[in-house]
Specification:
With 144 residues, this protein is α/β, with parallel strands linked by helices. It has one domain: 4-Layer Sandwich (Purple Acid Phosphatase, chain A, domain 2), CATH 3.60.21. Helix 2 packs parallel to helix 3. The chain is built from four helices and three strands. It starts with a helix and ends in a 28-residue tail after the last helix. Strands 1-2-3 form a three-stranded parallel β-sheet, covered by helices on one side.
Length: 144
């Protein structure tokens, strides 16, 4: 749920986390172990600062979430479960800016990016903002 004005009007200081380029060799076949370690570290840091003067309010990723954004399986298998873990366990909002590996210059890449991260979810409650892409993609997936 979006915080109300009365809960945020006096906020003068907060923290946020920026990270990027989480693609790796297992995209589409398994959870990215290395990325899961980063996510766990972020959650620990978020919880550590939770009651401080500068709690973490959001996480920003600078792109390159997966190796090939046109491949639905890479999003569903290797990325979305980790981000759902971060947003639910960390209790923060998450913003992804597309990098060159999301391939948003192609129809398939753009569709997959917005299917995983629809514009409406950017304004919704942080719970459930990320979702798996369609189970039967309209693009042909090729093995990496």
């Amino acid at each position: 749920m979006k915080p109300t004005w009365d809960r945020t009007q006096d906020v003068k200081r907060f923290s946020f986390i920026v990270h990027g380029d989480t693609r790796w060799r297992r995209d589409g076949t398994a959870i990215q172990h290395e990325h899961s370690l980063v996510i766990d570290s972020m959650i620990a840091h978020i919880k550590q600062l939770q009651n401080s003067e500068c709690p973490v309010h959001f996480v920003l990723q600078s792109g390159d979430a997966v190796v090939d954004g046109t491949q639905v399986g890479q999003w569903n298998t290797s990325f979305i479960p980790l981000i759902n873990h971060l947003t639910t366990e960390g209790g923060v909002r998450y913003f992804l800016t597309p990098g060159n590996h999301e391939k948003t210059d192609s129809e398939a890449g753009r569709r997959n990016y917005f299917d995983a991260y629809p514009p409406s979810s950017r304004r919704q409650d942080r719970q459930g903002a990320w979702r798996c892409l369609r189970c039967t993609p309209s693009v042909t997936e090729t093995p990496s």
